[in-house]
Amino acid sequence: MNKRVLVLHFSQTGQLSNVARAITEPLDSADNIDIVYECLKPVESYPFPWPFFKFFDTFPETVYDDPVAIEPLSPQTEGDFDLIILAYQVWFLSPSQPITAFLQSADAKRLLNNCPVMTVIACRNMWLMAQERMKLQLQSLNAHLIDNVVLTDSVHSAATFFSTPMWMLTGNKGPFFNGLIPAAGVSSQDVEQASRFGEAIASQLPLRQSDDREPMLQGLGAVTINERLIASERIASRSFRVWGGLLRFTGKPGALLRRTVLIAYILFLITLILTVVPLSAIIKRLLAPLMAQRIKQQRQYFALPSGEETNNMDKKT
User: Fold this and answer.
1) Which residues pair with 36 in a beta bridge?
2) Does the bond joining 175 to the residue before it have cis omega, within 30 degrees of 0?
3) Taking the CA atoms of the chain, what radius of gyration do you get in angstroms?
4) Domain span at residue 264?
5) Phi-psi domain of 109 (left: phi exceeds 0; alpha: psi -120 through 50; beta: other)
6) Which of 35, 216, 227, 315 has a CA 20 to 30 Å removed from the CA of 195?
7) H helices within 29-156, ranges in order?
8) Are the C-beta atoms of residues 174 and 183 closer than 8 Å to each other?
9) Do the Cβ atoms of 149 and 121 come closer than 8 Å?
10) What pTM was estimated for this model as a whole?
11) Over the stretch 274-289, which tens digit does the pLDDT of each residue have?
12) How far apart are CA 167 and CA 173, in angstroms?
């Protein structure tokens, strides 16, 4: 009997859907695997490119897991699946609202219960806290996270502070200012090379038992941990919770008082990026020799379940 794979995805720009397709292309051509693609559809669509205030006004509900509802899944998602691939964006260090809406749905309870799950992320560079929240959601649904693939923007993080917002607010990936700010997004080469993950799945999934919970992508460089961002993500995540709670207290999205507080938050965020973030980077670099063992442990933890190792890359690329 053929193995069944469900790919659930939502992508405003199309980047994440392209990544998901690159990964699953080898599955499409496998005779012993049936694959179903399901794009999540919000009841109230999100704009792209984002209007400036709408973009920031989305973050309180995002970080407090209060998303816009999605449409029920299509009939093709009925039945059991041997693997579910959740391809999700990171919004404000949290899973995007559409994927959160799915995880809160009756469809998620039906599909994910006791099912192997692979998460796929395409983002700027900060995804650790979002994946921690994803783990908790999956655990509450009795799902089994067996692999995680993360593709990030490969240019310097300082450049992405400008390129990614410009992409979100204008719809233009760049490059900007005659190349001074590079193009935003995951490189086309990284997207193309993501097919190695699909090749590994296609070769292993048909041989797996229903209760097999071992990773399939170890040794393929599924994730890369930027240890310099671990502390920054934790600090920013706490900040989002504080400001998000305050903004929710001031009213619904678009309310006048909420917009006034939102302006203050945006100014705070810009100040944070220009001062605290560089300072914390310097401090972490100075303390790195004293925290080498702890950093190593953190890297190993956040890299699970697929890991950073690349010892099988030559076999799959």
Assistant:
1) 6
2) yes
3) 20
4) 230-295
5) alpha
6) 227
7) 52-57, 59-63, 97-103, 106-112, 128-140
8) yes
9) yes
10) 0.92
11) 776 677 767 777 777 7
12) 5
